[in-house]
């Protein structure tokens, strides 16, 4: 499991970011969430508790968290971005039909990075692996 909300908040404070109740709620929601939510999903989940919060507020805070290195932005196809607060090395399986993203662990592909570097001369900074298919629900024959 990645950092706790408290560790993340400390990290933000050290960069001079003021912690508002909204920011705390967005970050907590992301850290507790296994669904890699979109900004809209975060908005729908939090708007009952924060009626004055707009989708723009959520986007702005997500940008802030991404820049601070607390949250990873996942862009797949032309769908809206999804956000992941789990920064540990892990990979994603993505359902082509409903868009569900599920984390899975696999030994990190450092060999792939080394080979890419050797063969291309690139200074490799990272990689992303995605597995595509149908999730259990979408793959079920529906009668």
UniProtKB/TrEMBL annotation:
Q: This protein's superkingdom?
A: Bacteria
> Which spans are transmembrane here?
none
Which first-to-last residue range defines the signal peptide? none
Which Pfam family, just one, is annotated for this protein?
Answer: FUR
Cross-referenced InterPro entries:
FUR (IPR002481), Fur_C (IPR043135), WH-like_DNA-bd_sf (IPR036388), WH_DNA-bd_sf (IPR036390)
Q: What are the alphabetically sorted keywords of the record?
A: DNA-binding, Repressor, Transcription, Transcription regulation, Zinc
Similarity section: Belongs to the Fur family.
PANTHER family, per database record: PEROXIDE-RESPONSIVE REPRESSOR PERR, ZINC UPTAKE REGULATION PROTEIN
Protein name in the entry? Peroxide-responsive transcriptional repressor PerR
């Amino acid at each position: 499991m990645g950092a706790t909300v408290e560790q993340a908040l400390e990290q933000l404070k050290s960069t001079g970011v003021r912690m508002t109740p909204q920011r705390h709620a967005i970050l907590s929601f992301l850290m507790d969430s296994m669904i890699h939510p979109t900004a809209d999903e975060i908005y729908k989940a939090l708007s009952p508790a924060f009626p004055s919060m707009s989708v723009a507020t959520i986007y702005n805070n997500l940008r802030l968290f991404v820049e601070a290195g607390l949250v990873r932005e996942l862009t797949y196809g032309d769908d809206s971005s999804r956000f992941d607060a789990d920064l540990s090395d892990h990979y994603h399986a993505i359902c082509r039909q409903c868009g569900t993203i599920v984390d899975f662990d696999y030994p990190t592909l450092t060999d792939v990075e080394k080979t890419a570097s050797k063969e291309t001369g690139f200074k490799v900074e990272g990689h992303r692996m995605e597995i595509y298919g149908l999730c259990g629900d979408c793959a079920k024959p529906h009668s």
